[in-house]
Specification:
This protein is an alpha+beta fold. The protein has 12 helices and 18 strands. Helix 9 packs parallel to helix 12.
Length: about 475
Amino acid sequence: MLDFKELPVDGNDFELLIRELLFKMGFRVYWSGKGADGGRDLICIEESKSAFMSTEKRWLIQCKHTAHSEKSIGIKDLDDILGSCAQHKAKGYLLVCSTYPSSGVVNRLEGISSSTEGFSATYWDSITIERLLKTPYTWPIAQRFFPKSSNNEGWQVYATERPNHWLINFEGYYFHLSNRIQSIVDMHLDSIRDRIREMESIIVPDKHLLRLRAAYYDDKNGNYQWYIDYLYPYDENPVVNQYSIKRELGDGYVLGDGQVHYFDVHSYQYNGLSDHYDPDHYKFYDPYLRDFLDGSNRSPQYSMKLPGGEDIFITEGKEEELFRDEKFNQLVECFRKIDFIKVIRAKNSSIENIDKFQYQFNWNEVIRELDIDTDLFFSARISFTCNDSKRLISMVKCFPYGAEAHFKLSSRYSIDFEGNDEEQIYDLVFSIHPEKMRNKVVARKSFNKYFKNILNGIKLFKEEG
């Protein structure tokens, strides 16, 4: 349960809590000034949309924070309800208390509602407030005002309109959970707790956060897909990257529950000074909901901005690109500098994109969108012309070759049907044996290591003259 004693005894934060909750629920809210007890009252505008005529209703909201004394709200704690509402032209009155109203208060509110035409009077007690906060949309407010008790919450599982999709709060984490087929949730709880504990064991500095966003269970094939975000302040450097996180968590391995686990990790810089920053902002979830529901990797990250151009989060997308392409680009640039070679085309391995074909019915769309050479998942290729074949052979003899990592040099002719000279083209293909690839991250590391070794081979060839 949320502990309302976390809120200061003066009641100011309790009033702010209710104001933020009402804003989140879509109401227009204003301060009306201090009430008789010294607290600030709120005016809430409730709008009713209609095809004929939209209407508004003004509510006077009075907040009573007595959680520290644990006392109920009695008749003597109320002022002249009808008089106060008339002063503010309100047709509704809401008493909000961090404990509960006495039976006399409840009877009085009910009596005012039944005896005053067109007027409503009601109350929210601590149980009602907690229920309103324990929704996927409002839970970040609970985390802000109740940092201790919100993180101590046990399992809070909310059903959705889909029988195999749930929303879960657990120890301060809010995330989606989906099954491929079954409508059973309890069997996942131990695995989720274990993954969270392993994620929390990754050491990061203060204000660097790892957040679980979703989990998808393929109960037909026995594997999990986990979606995790790494957040770090915009004025600091990351201390881990997507790939090191995946390695730490055992991406592609069978873990203690006997299931294979895969991890989709995004990293973001965030602006903690932004009024709109929240570690569980809806933009971490909404753009990827379809991926969460079918277990596919999330689409590429994008910059998150509010109207007016204010940065909430700054995507950190170069890290993955460098890990994937840096060594290969260095190798291609080295080839371009060889005086007897002219590079025509170079294409890195597409190993990172192989899983995009799992759920896509039309593979041609994936190939076209990502510009993939489908024969280059487990290999990379550099195509070039050469004016000194003997030196070319001498150079490739300096390249390392083995069962796990190897290359193939072949030649072909480009035929010009207009009668111009034929051109001999060489293809140098670098390959990693698929059986040696445990997952995409390990495969990319193997490619990068081999590209580095090829660069060393070119250096050796140049030194030998």
